[in-house]
Specification:
By secondary structure, this protein is mainly β. 1% of the residues lie in helices and 40% in strands.
Length: 323
């Protein structure tokens, strides 16, 4: 069973395996040097994937950034990545402008669809990783991570500022791990967090509030369907849905016992992947999702559908072949 890298940071059981660390190990110091070229990087641990126009961009251990221009049939490494730390998430505001975040608070940016990247931010004084990044356009973005770390930019990442969050109910300080930031169709921001909490901002990130889902486990991912329904999922296959913008949440049967690591919405269809090889699917109105489990029980970490409808699955062992 995969063990946590950081005490209390449940997401680390799949997003920091590359460091080869378990609880109690000292983290490997970040080296500000280019990511190495690998003979077959498609078998490296990959943690997130996104569309950059028609291109597919995946990120993972050792600063690996993979690009595919043929719908996921073949991949190549990006030409220049200036940091070799594990990258946990990637997001593109358009076909050219994207950001990747990861270990040691690294934030990388690209303006050419992922071919080359620049280092916008890092903090080697403490290994406080970033788990997720979201931009509403090419200038305004947020990155979130361990111990309520939230960074905000209004200039495309040339400057990142730390945002102070309020403490959650019953606490005196903001110390929750923030695992995934996303927005619904109205622009309301959500963050899936630990202890069953979802953070919500209805004013573009100026203020934040905590919403309880009814779950006590970590929520690792979230998405919003075309009709505005919001979903979050996490430990042990727990899946929750809100039809009122995050005011209230209902538990949905995911038909899975594997912890959900990624949710993706297209129209009213919601698909996801998780640990133990689970792939789930449903609609915004379904009371129960369907699930299939891969025979290899792979630890799935990311999911995207190519323009041609090809399912692309990421795992701790790289990009998986279709079943």
């Amino acid at each position: 069973m995969i063990r946590n890298l950081f005490a209390g940071a449940a997401l680390a059981c799949f997003c920091m395996i590359a460091a080869g660390q378990t609880a109690g190990d000292a983290p490997t110091p970040l080296k500000i040097e280019p990511a190495h070229a690998w003979a077959d990087p498609t078998h490296a641990m990959l943690l997130d994937v996104a569309h950059a126009g028609r291109r597919i961009v995946a990120v993972g251990e050792h600063g690996i950034v993979l690009l595919s221009d043929d719908g996921g049939r073949s991949y190549r490494q990006a030409k220049r990545v200036p940091a070799s730390s594990t990258l946990t998430a990637v997001y593109f505001a358009d076909a050219e402008h994207g950001w990747a975040v990861g270990q040691w608070g690294v934030i990388l940016a690209t303006a050419d669809g992922g071919e080359t990247w620049t280092l916008q931010r890092s903090d080697t004084s403490i290994d406080q990783p970033l788990f997720s990044v979201y931009f509403k356009d090419a200038r305004h973005g947020w990155a979130v991570g361990l111990w309520s770390l939230m960074l905000v930019t209004e200039d495309g990442g040339r400057a990142w500022k730390v945002a102070k969050l309020p403490p959650p109910p019953g606490s005196t300080k903001a110390d929750r791990n923030l695992f995934h930031i996303f927005a619904d169709r109205s622009g309301t921001l959500f963050i899936a967090a630990e202890q069953g909490m979802v953070l919500r901002s209805r004013d573009g990130g100026a203020t934040w509030e905590y919403r309880r889902t009814g779950n006590k486990g970590s929520l690792w991912t979230g998405t919003s369907s075309a009709d505005g329904t919001v979903f979050v999922g996490g430990l042990l296959g727990h899946l929750y849905r809100s039809r009122d913008g995050g005011d209230t949440w209902d538990a949905i049967d995911s038909a899975s016992t594997g912890s959900i690591t990624e949710l993706v919405a297209s129209g009213d269809r919601v698909q996801g992947v998780g640990l133990d090889g689970f792939v789930i699917s449903g609609t915004s109105t379904a009371e129960r999702f369907t699930a299939r489990q891969r025979p290899d029980r792979a630890a799935l970490t990311g999911f995207v559908v190519s323009r041609s409808g090809r399912e692309i699955l990421l795992s701790k062992d790289g990009i998986l072949k279709p079943e």
